[in-house]
């Protein structure tokens, strides 16, 4: 029986622990050894459980080591099998050796081996073996859903938690396995940090993945695959270093440069070799910071000179952040012209209704022509004698207007916006379009596609507000809508009673129409005020102040008042397209001792975009939802108002001149349009009230947040996060301008707010 116990513990099948298959058997005959007492059977049950768990753990580890997609999980399973289970096997051999040598610790008088003593030798392994089996089951991937398999980050994080269970043996085993997992993960990391390559096994669970499209390989950062000791800033630095090395190797960017002979491999390898497992967050972050700093100062400065970075940022500020207002105005005008041509084409069409609706959809060629005509209009506004504008020329080369899927959020990695705001891409044309940028190499090391996506979202957001303001303001430019005071027809007809009666009827008709539209004009006036103040706050305060502060930080490590004024002058030069802009950038690039390294600028740029989105209230879904409804209702109101003016002109021709259109019932259409116009007005009033309420809620929450932060303010490490976003101003300044006060009165009849 002792031989069977030791064989079962070693993982071999034994009849000692197999129950009799006869259901009619008595309890004393349920095992192959019916002479065993109940006490002996109770002792053997614990040994049988240990043997079963050991056998199951060994099978799980073998399956993981041979089939699991994660190399880290394979390493952990192999360590359990070859080290920890081997130690258990040596324990079995030691007990067997003691029995054979008749050691007094195992063999008593008359060569009797107490069963309780054998069981006591393996009692410490009961909980530890169950823990090994639990870890193996955690790593084992379900065959039905391979995408949900255990990853490197999940097993590392699980082992980190297991070190705090309070059991010494489990803590030591977890520390050992955690060291194995972290060393296997560091091997994947070293391949990326030293050579810019992803190892073959890293394609599954490493936090950086490669995606090849159209012959170009894009490396994406997945924060959900990060171990707990790696924060997002450190992951971004790792991402940048590896992408830079891969770009240098694949495109041979530094083949003709003197720095091509400088080898950073020994330095980076020596830094990684100093890491000791188990890893800590501070130790790992310091090592990556040293690698990033050395790489940025010796390599990235040659790939990404500061003048090129500033030129790209000036381009983004000029066109995406509406720094050049004439570009936004021309783009809106050309888009309206395109939609008007489409409507005229649809009106002339004699096809069915479905075909007519399809004819309103804008094609890709027309979208491209909108941007091309915008560039032509802007070019015609410049004088031939003016100096060339490098920002304008670069924008014509890199910018494009493309179709966009109607997404409700911007997908990002860290510092990003996730499922927090509504899309404004479809406010310019009848389909969602977005302004995009073709990032030239090697500037794609600094500006990623997710950054361009955020800029596109901000551009669509600001452009929608500017477009609604333009359309609403243009109502006052239409004389027929604003005022129409009929004049006498002229003598001799005007001197007759009939002429005076006709003139009185016309003026009475116009007076009634003006009274009917009075509420609409009041709502339009309030809407123009709200849009103008929103545009001035977003573009004039938030965007401009944030951009000037960010550009001043790039140019000088500690900007003061004089440097801020210099940044303002630089921005004015960018808007004017002066050659002095190039000179200022060259001077900045020469001041290498004061400038930041490209990786620091890239990190600060991500912080700048995130802060800008927050300050623009894009990250507030309640505000953006109300604002989108407000802009859509403005479009409906302006369309109904313009249509009503055309209908009334046709009615005037019928009543005054006798020109009748037999195919149209203008009186019925006037009633319908007036009803829709009144509904749009009421919806617009409600949206304006909701916007003000939401702004006040944001103001109160901001005050609370500022008070809490002032109680426990901590200064960030300047070497890690030197850039601090602009925090001047707030929605309270906007609310002071939008405080209607006594202008808001309750209209009991309509149950809406009549802004008169």
UniProtKB/TrEMBL annotation:
Domain of life according to the entry: Eukaryota
Q: Name one GO molecular function term.
A: gamma-tubulin binding
Q: What family does the Swiss-Prot or TrEMBL record give for this protein?
A: Belongs to the TUBGCP family.
Sorted UniProt keywords: Cytoplasm, Cytoskeleton, Microtubule
The keyword Transcription regulation is assigned to this record: no
Q: Identify one Gene Ontology CC term for this UniProt entry.
A: spindle pole
Q: What is this protein called?
A: Spindle pole body component
Would you kindly state one Gene Ontology biological process term found in this protein's UniProt entry? spindle assembly
Record organism: Eremomyces bilateralis CBS 781.70
Where are the annotated segments for Disordered? 483-509, 577-599, 706-730
Q: Ranges for the Gamma tubulin complex component C-terminal domain?
A: 313-740
Localization recorded for this chain is: Cytoplasm, Cytoskeleton, Microtubule organizing center
Q: What is its main location?
A: cytoplasm
Q: Which InterPro entries match?
A: GCP (IPR007259), GCP_C (IPR040457), GCP_C_sf (IPR042241), GCP_N (IPR041470)
Q: What range(s) does the Gamma tubulin complex component protein N-terminal domain occupy?
A: 2-304
Is Heme one of the keywords UniProt gives this record? no
Query: Gene3D superfamilies, alphabetically?
Result: Gamma-tubulin complex, C-terminal domain (1.20.120.1900)
């Amino acid at each position: 029986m002792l031989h069977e116990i030791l064989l079962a513990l070693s993982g071999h099948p034994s009849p000692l622990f197999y129950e009799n298959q006869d259901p009619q058997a008595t309890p004393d005959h349920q095992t192959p050894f019916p002479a065993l007492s109940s006490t002996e059977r109770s002792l053997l049950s614990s040994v049988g459980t240990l043997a079963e768990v050991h056998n199951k753990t060994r099978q799980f580890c073998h399956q993981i080591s041979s089939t699991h997609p994660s190399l880290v999980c394979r390493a952990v399973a192999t360590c359990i099998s070859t080290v920890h289970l081997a130690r258990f096997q040596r324990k079995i051999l030691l007990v067997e050796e003691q029995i054979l040598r008749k050691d007094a610790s195992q063999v008593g008088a008359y060569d009797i081996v107490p069963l309780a003593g054998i069981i006591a030798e393996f009692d410490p392994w009961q909980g530890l073996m169950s823990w090994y089996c639990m870890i193996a089951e955690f790593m084992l991937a379900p065959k039905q859903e391979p995408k949900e398999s255990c990853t490197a980050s999940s097993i590392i994080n699980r082992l980190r938690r297991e070190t705090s269970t309070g059991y010494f043996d489990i803590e030591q085993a977890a520390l050992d396995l955690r060291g194995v997992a972290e060393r296997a993960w560091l091997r994947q990391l070293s391949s990326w940090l030293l050579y810019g390559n992803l190892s073959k096994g890293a394609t599954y669970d490493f936090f950086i993945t490669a995606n090849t499209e159209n012959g170009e390989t894009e490396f994406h950062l997945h924060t959900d695959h990060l171990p707990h000791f790696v924060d997002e800033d450190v992951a971004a630095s790792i991402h940048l270093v590896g992408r830079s090395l891969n770009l240098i190797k694949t495109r041979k960017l530094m083949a003709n440069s003197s720095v091509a002979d400088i080898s950073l491999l020994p330095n980076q390898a020596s830094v990684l070799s100093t890491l000791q497992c188990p890893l800590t967050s501070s130790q790992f972050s310091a090592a990556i910071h040293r690698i990033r700093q050395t790489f940025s100062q010796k390599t990235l400065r040659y790939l990404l000179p500061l003048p090129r970075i500033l030129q790209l940022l000036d381009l983004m500020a000029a066109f995406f952040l509406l720094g050049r207002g004439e570009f936004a105005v021309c783009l809106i005008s050309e888009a309206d012209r395109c939609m008007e041509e489409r409507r005229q084409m649809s009106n002339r069409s004699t096809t069915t209704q479905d075909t007519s609706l399809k004819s309103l959809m804008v094609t890709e060629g027309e979208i491209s022509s909108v941007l091309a005509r915008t560039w032509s209009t802007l070019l015609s506004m410049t004088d031939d004698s003016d100096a060339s504008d490098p920002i304008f020329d670069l924008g014509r080369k890199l910018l494009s207007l493309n179709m966009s899927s109607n997404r409700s959020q911007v997908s990002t990695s860290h510092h990003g916006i996730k499922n927090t705001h509504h899309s404004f891409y479809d406010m310019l044309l009848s389909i969602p379009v977005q302004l995009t940028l073709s990032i030239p190499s090697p500037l794609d090391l600094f500006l990623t596609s997710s950054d361009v996506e955020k800029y596109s979202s901000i551009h669509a957001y600001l452009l929608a507000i500017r477009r609604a303001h333009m359309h609403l303001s243009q109502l006052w430019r239409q004389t027929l809508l604003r005022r129409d005071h009929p004049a006498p027809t002229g003598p001799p007809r005007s001197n007759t009673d009939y002429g005076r009666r006709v003139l009185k009827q016309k003026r009475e008709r116009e007076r009634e129409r003006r009274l009917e539209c009075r509420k609409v004009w009041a709502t339009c006036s309030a809407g123009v005020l709200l849009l103008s103040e929103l545009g001035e706050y977003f573009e004039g305060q938030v965007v401009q102040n944030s951009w000037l502060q960010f550009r001043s930080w790039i140019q000088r490590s500690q900007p003061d008042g004089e440097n801020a004024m210099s940044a303002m002058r630089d921005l004015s030069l960018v808007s004017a397209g002066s050659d002095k802009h190039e000179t200022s950038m060259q001077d900045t690039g020469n001041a290498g001792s004061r400038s930041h390294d490209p990786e620091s600028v890239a990190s600060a740029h991500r912080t700048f975009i995130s802060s800008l989105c927050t300050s623009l209230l894009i990250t507030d879904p309640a505000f953006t939802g109300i604002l989108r409804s407000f802009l859509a209702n403005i479009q409906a109101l302006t369309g109904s108002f313009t249509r009503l003016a055309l209908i009334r002109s046709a009615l005037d021709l019928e009543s005054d001149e006798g020109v009748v259109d037999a195919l149209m019932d203008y009186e019925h259409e006037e009633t319908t349009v007036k009803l829709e116009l009144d509904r749009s007005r009421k919806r617009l009033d409600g949206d304006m009230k909701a916007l003000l309420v939401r702004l006040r809620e944001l103001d109160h929450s901001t005050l609370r947040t500022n008070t809490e932060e002032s109680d426990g303010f901590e200064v960030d490490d300047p070497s890690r996060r030197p850039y601090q976003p602009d925090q001047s101003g707030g929605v309270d300044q906007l609310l002071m301008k939008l405080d209607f006060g006594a202008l808001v009165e309750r209209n009991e009849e309509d149950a809406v707010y009549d802004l008169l």
